[in-house]
Amino acid sequence: MDQFLVAVELLRRPELVGRPVIVGGRGDPTERAVVSTASYEARERGVRSGLALKIAVRRCPDAVLLPVDFPVYEAASAEVMATLRARPGAVVEVLGWDEAFVGVETADPLRTAQEIRAAVLTATRLHCSIGIGDTLVRAKIATDFGKPQGTFFLHRDNWLDVMGHRPTTALWGVGSRIGQRLAAIGLDTVAQLAACPDEPLVEAFGPNTGPHFGRLGRGEGRSWPDDTPWVARAHGRETTYQADLITREEVAAALGELAER
After folding, report:
1. What is the tens place of the pLDDT at every residue in 68-87?
2. Could you tell me which of 121, 221, 124, 107 has the C-alpha nearest to residue 171?
3. β-strand pairing of 91-96 with 99-103
4. CB 174 within 8 A of CB 190
5. From CA 207, how far away is CA 205, in angstroms rounded?
6. Average pLDDT value for residue range 131-137
7. Which fold would CATH assign to domain 4-69?
């Protein structure tokens, strides 16, 4: 989904369309909180997810800040996923609120993608972008090239043409730290990683993770989604304190409160 949380808010506040909008925390930049989603207008000003709200408003002082409204986003997400599952023969693997793999058998993937985008828009009034791929990795990465409100097809034959010159951090699951470790063994680009034998990767990352990065460089991996319901193995909850806990008494009181929850 495109700028999902912001898009849901714009349905409720159409007067904000075209303005820089930031969703995060309680919408108060004086509090400790981070950006959950920023509109494309805000992103052009350097605002991104995970950025502290106080820094976000410095970069984009005229942005409209809105608090996170979990129940509304969950309801919108459920409607999107129901629309995807309603397509005959579709296998849907949900990745999060605003993202899913959809496996379909089709002779015309571009037309099918257009039909899915139209179905989601009709059902939810929300726009989405679709990445098409012959593996899940390629489909996932292709989505970024399709944004906003578009479609992109990554496959074995165009993989290196599109991705080869890009840094390894352009790959799904390769962040800055892993990118630095890959660069340390001479692998700066996707093409270099794709051509690398397993031995240096195993030495640097271990027998499982090393070859996994090599497969990522080649765009390899699963070719079909898995719609088996995900069962959480643990549950967590996060609390951000607006002021530092300094004394032992403050820490003990906070721990007691968290334990009660």
Report:
1. 999 999 999 999 999 999 99
2. 221
3. antiparallel
4. no
5. 7
6. 97
7. MutS, DNA mismatch repair protein, domain I (3.40.1170)
Count the neighbouring beta carbons within 10 Å of the beta carbon of residue 211. Answer: 16
Domain ranges of the chain: 4-69, 71-154
For residues 135 and 147, what is the distance between their CA atoms, to the nearest angstrom? 19
Q: Can you identify the CATH homologous superfamily of domain 71-154?
A: Reverse transcriptase/Diguanylate cyclase domain (3.30.70.270)
Contacts for 218 with CB less than 8 Å, ≥ 6 apart: 159, 194
CA angle 141, 4, 241 (to 5 degrees): 105
- Distance in angstroms between the alpha carbons of the first and the last residue of the chain: 33
CA distances to 104, 136, 197, 203, 231 from 131, rounded to whole Å, are 13, 9, 28, 33, 26
Cβ proximity of 224 and 104 under 8 Å: no
| pLDDT score, position 229 | 83
Average pLDDT over residues 81-101: 95
Q: Identify whether the C-beta of residue 65 lies closer than 8 Å to the C-beta of residue 58.
A: no
Residue 99 a catalytic site member: yes
| Of 237 and 245, the one with more pLDDT | 245
Written as one letter, the residue type at 56 is A
Q: Of these residues, 31, 41, 79, 99, which one is catalytic?
A: 99
Model confidence at 250, pLDDT cuts 50, 70, 90, reads confident
Please enumerate in sequence order all residues whose Cβ is within 8 A of that of 99, keeping only pairs 6 or more positions apart, or say none: 1, 143
